[in-house]
């Protein structure tokens, strides 16, 4: 603090500043304390809320695990275990987080440990054993366990423990709030106490500042009076302890007295040095004499004399003499120009003074020991503007400005003396330069040799790097070839898969044709026999014919189911998305299934809730096929009671549980409930597999192929929906179909490779078949026999068919209606018959025929102007959607698939013959 200069103005300002600082410190302390209280309040609030949330989350995790465990035990569906498994991991993480918050409280920690033990005990004794029994289908063990239900006690105890913990935490929160209030009151008291302290400190500062100013002025006045009273004694000095304007006045007066004494001393010493230089002819002698004379004048205890030698870049400052040196290594032997303080002093031509030199290698040696120097002085001496020598002094005390002024006076005189001695030593100096140059040349040679060796090493490294890069290039080319080979193999495999898929599609189409062709004649002839129009069959024989006809329809349904299932598995189904009027579904299903219900004496109810949206954007055909199969199964397995079709808006909880991807879409829940035989729990998943039934034994009571539910399940997946089964044996079953509305999907949503679907109508098991043409118009069979006989009687029909069985069956059926039938076995014979006779009212055209198929024949018929407008009904045994389009493009008026339903065929003929009559 004594080295700091403070003016009177600054002292006053500092006094005010200290008072302001005290006020600021007080404000800062109060603000910091308030901020600390606020931080503690926020921390406490966040911590308590987090603890309450964690307690609630652990409770939710355990409840979710219990619900998931019970759901899996009830349904056996592995999807119910997902919440259990996730909850099992999450409660432990939440427990560990909660333990970190309350681990410092022994009571809360003990309660938390009890919760952990309860949960682990429930998992060990209740959850895991029942899940294991359910996976092992140990139904009896599950029933016995739930009769005792030891896990319920653990869950109840857990709820009590968690509630107790929550109440304890609420109590702790209240205690924390009370503690913070007490601390806030203490803060107010501290604030008043600090104001009192600041007032006392401000008074002390003002008193101290004013006192120092007045005391200093009094000391200066007294000293000046003493100097004037002694008769001009300049050895007296003014002493002032403060560092302000008064101190400046005293120092200026003292400096004036010092300058007068210093000038006299310098003049005396310069004269002594000039006398000493006379008669010296050797540089070392000159240096020794100079150091010996000048060192005591400067108070130096150590000195080194450096003379400048050499020319050009080889110029150096070489040590020539030393004063009070200790040992041979005292002082460096030489310096280059610019090297160290010695060399830099020679270049800059200025004096260097170092008053602090810690850990300097030079020490001042005496008989009693060693002393570390405190000050170093480096002085250059010039001759004609060129530095000739540099002298360095070291002292245990600091060099003064008087010493520096003495050296300034000596410099010019001593430079002349050095130049005189240097002239006589030129030869020796040139010899030294030659030796130095030789040493430098040798050093450069060694450096060049080292660089040459390094260059050779770099060339060797480059060669090794090049070889390594070549190896990597070869490896990369080999990998490229392997990748190309693998790509080619994958492409070949892809082509094989495509060919395999095409083979399967062709096989299904051909098998459909080969099965439907003989089945067509079976159905037609059996239907004719069952109708017994000629009354030639007994009731028993008529029953035989009805059995044959029913069996044929069952076989047709089996063929269609296999085709549908194969297309779904092969990914060749197309969805036609459109608006479906939901309000029409109950009426349509009642029209289809009321006869079945009346036949079996079963009540059939169809309900539509008011909250159901009027329109659903989905594939209406697939939706009706699913509902028909579900209702057909319900009637099949229900002997008494009722079957109920219920349509309602899906519950949001069910949508979140079963269809979380459609939370933003409208979802309709369609339930089919029966009071039939029910489905055991262990078979509720099995029945959705192909060829699987509830009574799947060889002595089963109910018929069917077991494909209906499998197709329903696959079609439901295509519609982005889901089927949920709830069933109790001997009480009945409920199949709930969840169907989302998908307005954003394309009208024809391609989930197929080839757009092929079954072209024939789906017959309904154990229900009267209502057949409609594949066109958009439904043709209903009229009950007016008179009108039918008058319409068909005498009409001429050309039947083009290569299968003799179908020819026989169709001819008999048509002739029974009074129709005149002409038969052609292929397209070529058809054209020959038409050339001879062009007055046919209608043509029935088979598609697959030898020599000339149906497509070519229809095109040829349409090219003839006489038969251009003759109605042509195409008959085909293929079940592909593209067949109908090909037929219409080739010139067919309408289309019907085999096996033929005679009612449908007569309905089509009636429509086209009526149009023909109208024309």
Structure description:
With 919 residues, the chain is of the alpha+beta class. The chain contains 21 helices and 22 strands. It starts with 7 loop residues before the first helix and ends with a helix.
Q: Helicity level, as a percent range?
A: 55-70%
Distance between the termini: 129 Å
Got a strand count? 22
- In percent, how much strand structure appears in the residues? 5-15%
Helix and strand content put the structural class at: alpha+beta
* Largest sheet properties: 6 strands, antiparallel
Strand order of the largest sheet: 3-2-1-8-7-4
Shape: elongated
Question: What's the number of helices?
Answer: 21
Low-confidence stretches: 696-700, 752-784
* Quaternary structure annotation: single chain
